[in-house]
Amino acid sequence: MKVSTIWKGKRMFDSTGPSGYSVGMDATPKYGGNGEGMTPMELLLAGLGGCMGIDITMILDRFLPEITRLEIEADGTRKEANPSGFTAIDLFFHIDGNVPDYRLWKAILMAEEKYCAVSDSLKAEIHPHLILNGVEVEKPEKTS
User: Are the beta carbons of 72 and 90 closer than 8 angstroms?
Assistant: First the structure.
């Protein structure tokens, strides 16, 4: 899967995926942006919540008529030092309806441990590539 992220000026970017949908991102004014879109870290938490939600609703498909509310709150704790990535993410599943708690827990744990590609991807290695003026430039051995 490829997603294209295009600079729109200052700190604003638009990303478009194979689905054809796009999302705008921007930095907060603290980091030189205008705050005209979600931050990338907010989108990461949103992606995790959406992935977990989709998987949970697939697992619980036959019970969906009994669910009147499914809201997922993701609360990420970040490191103080740069890069200030997440050190922990707490997911709060607010569910109303007539479904036994053991079924909900089973669906939540199956989504996290077996099906959610986003939670699995948080463990992924990142391999950067630089294409400068149309030519790929090898990564230096060490950067200073």
Answer: no
Spatial distance between the Cα atoms of 60 and 108, rounded to a whole number of angstroms: 10
The model's pLDDT over 75-93, given as tens digits with 9 standing for 90+, comes to 999 999 999 999 999 999 9
Classify each residue of 111-136 as buried b or exposed e, where b means 16 or more C-beta atoms within 10 Å of its C-beta: bbeebbebbeeeeeeeeeeeeeeeee
Torsion angle of the four alpha carbons 75, 80, 85, 87, in this order, in degrees rounded to the nearest 10? -60
pLDDT tens, residue by residue, 13-39: 999 999 999 999 999 999 999 999 999
Alpha-carbon torsion angle 120, 124, 130, 134, nearest 10: -40
Q: How many CB atoms are closer than 10 A to CB 99?
A: 15
* 62: phi then psi, degrees, rounded to nearest 5: -70, -15
Q: Which residues contact 114 (CB under 8 A, 6 or more apart)?
A: none
Contacts of 37 by beta carbon, 8 Å cutoff, 6+ apart: 12, 13, 23, 24, 25, 26
